[in-house]
Amino acid sequence: MARETWKSMVGFTFAALGSAVGLANICIFPFLVGMNGGAAFVFVYLICLVIVGFPVFISEILLGRTTRSSPAGAFRKVGGKRFWPFAGKMTVLTGFIVTSFYSVLAGWVLGYFVEALKGTVTSFGSIEEASQVFDSLVGTASWGLMFHGMFMLICLVIVFGGVRRGIERCSKIMMPVLIFLLLSMVVRGITLPNAWKGISYLFYPDLSEITGTMVLLALGQAFFTLSLGQGTMITYGSYLTEEDNIPKACIQIAIGDTLISLCAAIAVFTTLFSAGLEPAQGVGLIFKTLPIVFTKLPFSWALVTLFFLFVTLAAVTSEISAMEPVIAYLVDEKKWKRHSAVLACGIGGFALGIPCALSFSILKDWYLFGYGFMDFVQVLVQAILLPFGAFCAVFVVGWVWKWRNAERSLTVGSEFFFRSYPWFSLYLRWCIKYSAPILIILVFINKLFRA
Ligand code: PHE
């Protein structure tokens, strides 16, 4: 059977943007900004994105399109049979782990959407009250499990439709809705009293605040937000054709993803500062603070509900992309039927997510290397598995396949682009061969010793 391809370049762009935009943009980015002094973090993050995140992104899409294989096959075809098939399989395994814990986190967001509909999280008097509700909801085993299961089920139904009918169609509808909702929140935020304080917090950096840890956090964020290091972009690239212009699509996607993170941060911080709240609120930031902030506004019920709906939609398009490498692996390498592969990935991901979902309730006292189970899985993924996958992608493209050959393949479909911007090729060569692998090794080592 011929390999499925994206129906159009716009379909691919929306699907990849849907993968990139998710909890990392809306929950984690504002949280990291708030914990790391605002604009200085934003500044460092943007630099990491340009010299590491984007080159890894291009490498992964190129690996996929050239080999037209799942990550395991892609690494084997380009790197040979020694170490690289192992690297490919590791990225698939990482995808599977991301699938499971991401669904638990997204389940909370879905749960908050349902609570908002019921009116239980739409009118808080204080931050303590909101925190108590958050703790008691995530501390209820059945609540966490139920929404983890529901979220996974929604994703399964969508992925069942296949690449084009499922992911492409769904992302094409969801992304514009998301962008519309987000822009309305930004407008709402910047028209609040004292909104300028939030804006200056985000955009006037004090460069003396930059620290080593901040750089490492920013780098990890660049991978997670662009869905790198776990085979997703290799798999999405494998559904592209020779006519497609990779650099142009990647630039649009990276800019879109970054603008969405910035918009989310603007919406969060203008609202926070206007309500006189502190920015460093921890990982529960959006759950604990935004409902309170909205409480003080007119139409708070609708605002809170829309907000959690918006975040759930963003998480759905990311989760289905996290599942895709596992499914593509089972179909391409193990010759499974697509529907069986989807079912196995969904049921397996749900099962693996159960200990995460219970790690705030029944398994609260379970510790692995000093971490609660959910935190352990998150650290394992963001600090070890994703940097490993990202490193393998740039290294195999820059050094094993050799940049000369990779560039020839990248130019197919984008001859005009490279002729118009000759510096782009120099920039990519430098980053893929040097800056990206070196910086990733630094992150890797640092996280390993800090963990
Ligand atoms: N990029 C997604 C987000 O921003 C997370 C993700 C990571 C999705 C890896 C798929 C693969 O939330």
Describe the structure concisely for a colleague.
The protein is mostly helical and 451 residues long. The protein has 20 helices and two strands.
Which key phrases capture this entry?
single chain; 78% helix; binds phenylalanine
Structural features, described:
The protein has 451 residues and is an all-alpha fold. The chain contains 20 helices and two strands. Strands 1-2 form a two-stranded antiparallel ribbon. A hairpin with a 2-residue loop joins strand 1 and strand 2 (371-372). Helix 3 (39-67) packs across helix 10 (212-225), helix 3 runs antiparallel to helix 12 and helix 17 (373-400) runs antiparallel to helix 20 (422-450). The longest helix has 35 residues, at 84-118. It starts with 8 loop residues before the first helix and ends with a helix. The model has no long low-confidence stretch (mean pLDDT 87). Phenylalanine binds at residues 19-20, 22-25, 98, 224-225, 227, 230, 232, 318, 321-322.
* SSE pattern: HHHHHHHHHHHHHHHHEEHHHH
Q: Hetero groups bound?
A: phenylalanine
Strand content: under 5%
Distance between the termini: 46 Å
Stretches with pLDDT under 50, minimum 5 residues = none
**Estimated helix fraction:** over 70%
Tell me about the largest β-sheet.
2 strands, antiparallel
If strands are numbered along the chain, what order do they take across the biggest sheet?
1-2
Radius of gyration: 21 Å
Helix/strand layout:
Layout (H helix, E strand, L loop, with lengths): L8 H12 L2 H13 L3 H29 L3 H9 L4 H35 L8 H12 L2 H20 L2 H28 L4 H9 L8 H14 L6 H7 L7 H29 L10 H4 L1 H6 L4 H33 L5 H20 L9 E2 L2 E2 H28 L2 H9 L3 H6 L1 H29 L1
Antiparallel strand pairs: 1-2
Bound molecules: phenylalanine.
